[in-house]
TrEMBL record:
GO BP annotations, alphabetical order: glycolytic process
UniProt xrefs under PANTHER family: PHOSPHOGLYCERATE MUTASE
Alphabetized UniProt keyword annotations: Glycolysis, Isomerase
Catalytic class of the enzyme: isomerase
Protein name (Swiss-Prot/TrEMBL): phosphoglycerate mutase (2,3-diphosphoglycerate-dependent)
Species annotation: Clostridium fungisolvens
Known EC number: 5.4.2.11
Amino-acid positions noted as binding substrate in the UniProt annotation, renumbered to this chain: R7, H8, G9, E10, T11, E12, G13, N14, R57
InterPro entries cross-referenced by the UniProt entry: His_Pase_superF_clade-1, His_PPase_superfam, PG/BPGM_mutase_AS, Phosphogly_mut1
One Pfam family recorded for the sequence: His_Phos_1
Molecular function GO terms recorded: phosphoglycerate mutase activity
C-alpha cells in the first residue's frame, strides 16, 4: 500500500507565525500556488482514496488537487486527522504566548510529550487520536491501494512517527513543508519512507 501524506498549502496564519490548530485561516496566495504545483506533481499517480481533515485549509487543498466529482476515488472527511487543538494559544503568535503564558510555555519547552495546551488538547491525546485514525485506515485498505491523506504538519509528523516506530520522541525530527507530499510504502506492520517533502 502506498500512503501519500499531503500538508495543506501555506495559510495567512502560517505566513504570520500564528499557532494554528482548530482555528482556520485562508490559504495565502503562495499556498494556492503550492497546491497547483502539487496537483501537477501527483497527476500521474492513481489515487484510490482521499482522507482529509475537517479544517478548511485541508479541504481547500484536497479540492485543488483531486477531482471530487470522480467516482473512481473514495473521499472521506476525517476528524482524526485534524491538527492539535492549541486551546487558548490558538490564533496567537510565539511572542504573545511566551509573554502571557510564560510558565506554561516553559513547561511545553521542557517536555512537550506530557503537556496539555490551556483549554486545549494534550499532546498524548492528539498523538493517540491520529494514530488510531491511521491504523483504522490501514486495516480496511487493500495492499494495492494508493491512499492520500490531506492534513497538517503535526498530523503528518504523528503518522510518520507511528508507522516508522519513532513514537512520541520522534515528533520534532521531521520538518513537514507546506504544499508538499511525502510517500510511505506500508506492508502489514511495517513501513518504509520513500521520500519526504516532494
Amino acid at each position: 500500500m502506498k500512503l501519500i501524506l499531503i500538508r495543506h498549502g501555506e495559510t495567512e496564519g502560517n505566513l504570520n507565525g500564528i499557532y494554528q490548530g482548530i482555528k482556520d485561516y485562508p490559504l495565502s496566495e503562495e499556498g494556492k500556488l503550492q497546491n497547483l504545483k502539487l496537483k501537477s506533481k501527483l497527476e500521474n499517480i492513481n489515487v484510490d482514496k482521499v482522507y482529509y481533515s475537517t479544517m478548511e485549509r485541508a479541504k481547500k487543498t484536497a479540492d485543488a488537487i483531486f477531482d471530487f466529482s470522480s467516482s473512481a476515488i473514495y473521499f472521506e472527511e476525517n476528524l482524526s486527522f485534524n491538527e492539535i487543538n492549541f486551546g487558548l494559544w490558538d490564533g496567537k503568535d510565539y511572542k504573545y504566548i511566551s509573554k502571557n503564558y510564560s510558565e506554561q510555555f516553559q513547561s511545553f519547552i521542557d517536555d512537550f510529550k506530557i503537556f496539555k495546551f490551556p483549554e486545549g488538547e494534550s499532546f498524548k491525546d492528539f498523538y493517540n487520536r491520529v494514530s488510531e485514525g491511521i491504523r483504522k485506515i490501514i486495516k480496511v485498505s487493500k495492499e494495492e491501494d494508493n491512499i492520500a491523506i490531506v492534513a497538517h504538519g503535526g498530523t503528518i509528523r504523528v503518522i510518520l512517527c507511528e508507522l516508522l516506530g519513532f513514537n512520541y520522541e520522534g515528533f520534532y525530527k521531521f520538518n513537514i513543508s507546506h504544499g508538499c507530499y511525502s510517500l510511505l510504502t506500508v506492508c502489514k506492520d511495517s513501513a518504509v519512507l520513500e521520500f519526504l517533502n516532494k
